[in-house]
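Subject: sequence -> structure tokens, single chain

Hey, anyone have a minute? Need the predicted structure for the following. Not urgent.
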Amino acid sequence: MSANARGALLALLAFAIFATHDVLIKFLGGIYSPIQIVFYSVLLSFPLATLTLMRDSTPGTLLPVHPWWMALRTAAAVVTGISAFYAFSVLPLAQTYAILFAAPLLITILAIPVLGEKVRLRRWMAVLVGLVGVMIVLQPGATDLTLGHLAALAAAVGGSIASIIVRKIGGEERPLVLMLYPMVANFVLMGAAVGFVYVPMPFSHLAMLAIIAAMAFVAGRLVISAYNAGEAAIVAPMQYSQIIWAAIFGYLIFDEAPETATIMGAAVIIASGLYIVLRESRPDASENAPVLRTRSRFETGTFLRTPRMGMPKRRPDPREAPKTTAPSATERPHLRGLPGRVPPIAETRRRDVE
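Reply:
Had a minute. Here:
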């Protein structure tokens, strides 16, 4: 199996697990407040997250290098988590995904002021087409927009902000800092608010929350493995497979038949997102590749990522000798003066002096 095929299969498996994760959130969301669900999901994620965080050998402290960017990312992640959980609770799965899939369009726009990205006409046209797809899904004027629709839009905006900030500061911040701050913020803020909405939970529902945390952890690791195995241009589009699982699960479990407007709008949004990803994969089209190099899953506080997830792997140039193995990389004083040997560092020729 080729590396790209392995990466695509790992991504498909990861997003199938994520879709099942969202089904459990929707089921529990019909009984409990999203505040309570987020709180327990994050709480039960800490033991698994610790295993990942312990592997961070980057030297430094837990103080962020860019505190203001880190504060904005943390706030965006908190808003995204609570908004996405609420949207899954009250909206059909397929409709929620269709709105969340607008994130690549927003990332493309945000990359202009944040990363200094130059967006040319073709990508602007793809963004506009994608926004038209969002309008087709929402059908403003034809249907009443609910708080669930606004929550899904807030999750898309918040996830885009969190992702573009990681793209900007991910090379300078420790992965530990990038992952830990949103989790702690979700735990503290949701913990302070859970007392106002708390409903006693049976053991079976607590077990479901533990399964949600485990699924997010496993799926997150699979996404990382997928990006390590294959090219980002192949792996990133696999996120759109979630809409298929949403239609299947919605119909079989929640008796949700996707509306025609949702199907048409989702098709338009996915087409525009795919075009942006494929366009950014061309070396002459984008300097920053903001969509291609950011993660392809919205922030929930339970899904951990590395800041380099989605970064295309640098393939070795056969014409370039490795620095550590190049013959001239290390001086060999004992070889100086031997026939056929050239000193690693050329010395200036000296004139003979009588």
